[in-house]
Design goal:
Layout (H helix, E strand, L loop, with lengths): L6 E3 L2 H10 L4 H11 L2 E3 L9 E11 L2 E8 L4 E7 L29 H20 L1
Antiparallel strand pairs: 1-2, 3-4, 4-5
């Protein structure tokens, strides 16, 4: 299954307030997000419910992680959600989404942009090897 392609802007002021409310160090955490995450993209597999999600912080806060959730109508919120507890059938991976997420688990979701970048890097590496 391909990854959802929905993108949204991240309300940085609201993010700063959320981080402060959760007791994060304001300077370090805010600096991390203001320069790097002005846009977010849905990490979930393709879905038709109009609801999207991007993991904002991998820091475990009482077994939950900060997600930015938004919908196609402009609604959004930050929410701490527990991790999905599903293990991949081969036992080599766990689902990286939140519990009760829509659609397939993360190990079944492929990012076509990342796949294209990996292919390009491999192609270039073959070229470097043949030049030597």
């Amino acid at each position: 299954m391909l990854q959802c392609t929905r993108v949204s802007t991240l309300p940085v002021g609201e993010l700063a307030a959320e981080l402060l409310a959760a007791g994060h160090q304001p300077v370090e955490q805010f600096r991390t997000y203001t320069g790097a995450c002005l846009y977010v993209w849905c990490e979930l597999g393709e879905h038709s419910d109009g609801k999207h999600a991007d993991l904002i912080s991998e820091e475990d806060v009482n077994g939950e992680y900060l997600w930015f959730l938004w919908d196609d109508n402009g609604g959004h919120r930050f929410e701490y959600l527990p991790a999905c507890v599903a293990d991949a059938p081969d036992g080599d991976d766990v689902c990286h989404f939140f519990r009760q997420h829509p659609g397939d688990h993360s190990w079944k979701v492929t990012d076509p942009v990342m796949d294209a970048m990996r292919s390009e890097v491999k192609r270039q590496m073959r070229g470097w090897q043949s030049d030597g």
